[in-house]
């Protein structure tokens, strides 16, 4: 079986690229198609596959300014030649599902989210844009929404990385989806003894506006409690400038340092709304609780009173109140880590195999729209 994996761009290793790694292990014969490819920023697992790029990669400064070419990406996708492939797996968050599948091929889409900047977060992105972008966004986004909704009809079956995203697929495309949580390498993390836990809170992730690092800094500036922030991104300089002396902004850190910080923090602060959110699962796999905004994927991974707690409004008062509640909880690090095992790579591999196998089996049958793959968690190994 010839397999093509379509991904929006390969310029770094984040959650979407971890899914591509898992798909590469499931389908070692697969070819990969993408808009822009930076091999030095991508793992050996992905680099071992043949990677073909769209014409976007040939445009000026594409490796860094690829998002500027978003209006051209629908046309670029439709020019990719997928003749001869039997199975097409698109990984959707930026535009990737809009390829033209050959007749007879099965096209399944693993959706991290419909494009946020034209759908659920359009107004947020527009508000943060410069004057020219604010003027251009409405007409360009209108065109992209029309194409995006039409291109959803080229997908035979959708899988979503959370129930949150499955609801968006129903809202924007009127399509059902099977929920398959993304792979998290939970075995790479481990709890430490209670007496090794230190007196600091932790925030981890790319420092961009929708993740609300500014809110976390504002809260801890007020409280005087220690907050350690790990991550780079467009807001790094701003976050450093607004941080008081008790807020330590480390920037990007190597994995071993991150692993150490996860296992010894009092709790992880997760102030933004995510589609799924791998960071909370990594922290829980380290035996530490999560204090999260009660919207989005965190509501599907964090268990109130067992692996952490929620705050329901994005205010510094609510974050600090949630920190106080969390400190009163008697949580067992081993129990927290065990519950994080529900999101392992083994579970993802098993569910993805069954989803694709059932799709292939049903492709020509009368029960095509029946969801076969289970959304239940696998037993913890």
Describe this structure in words.
The protein starts with a strand and ends in a 19-residue tail after the last helix. It folds into two domains: about 5-185 and about 345-360, Rossmann fold; about 185-340, Glycogen Phosphorylase B (Rossmann fold). The chain has helices at about 15-25, 45, 60-65, 75-80, 120-125, 130-150, 165-175, 215-225, 235-240, 255-265, 280-285, 300, 315-330, 335-340, 345-360; strands at about 5, 30-35, 50-55, 85-90, 105-110, 155-160, 175-180, 200-205, 225-230, 245-250, 270, 290-295, 310. It has 15 helices and 13 strands. The protein is of the alpha/beta class and about 375 residues long. Helix 2 links the parallel strand 2 (about 30-35) and strand 3. The protein is globular, with a radius of gyration of 21 Å. A seven-stranded parallel sheet has the order 3-2-1-4-5-6-7, with helices on both faces. Mean pLDDT is about 95; it is low at about 365-380.
Q: Into which percent range does the helicity of residues fall?
A: 25-40%
Radius of gyration, whole Å: 21 Å
CATH homologous superfamily title of the largest domain: Glycogen Phosphorylase B
Count of structural domains: 2
Which regions contain 5 or more consecutive residues with pLDDT less than 50?
367-381
Secondary structure category: alpha/beta
Strand content: 5-15%
CATH architecture of the largest domain, by name, is 3-Layer(aba) Sandwich
Biggest sheet overview = 7 strands, parallel
User: Might you state the CATH topology name of the largest domain?
Assistant: Rossmann fold
What is the global morphology?
Answer: globular
Distance between the termini: 31 Å
Strand order in space, largest sheet: 3-2-1-4-5-6-7
Count the E strands: 13
- The run of helices and strands is EHEHEHHEEHHEHEEHEHEHEHEHEHHH
Tell me, what is the CATH class of the largest domain?
Alpha Beta
Mean pLDDT: 93
Tally of DSSP helical segments: 15
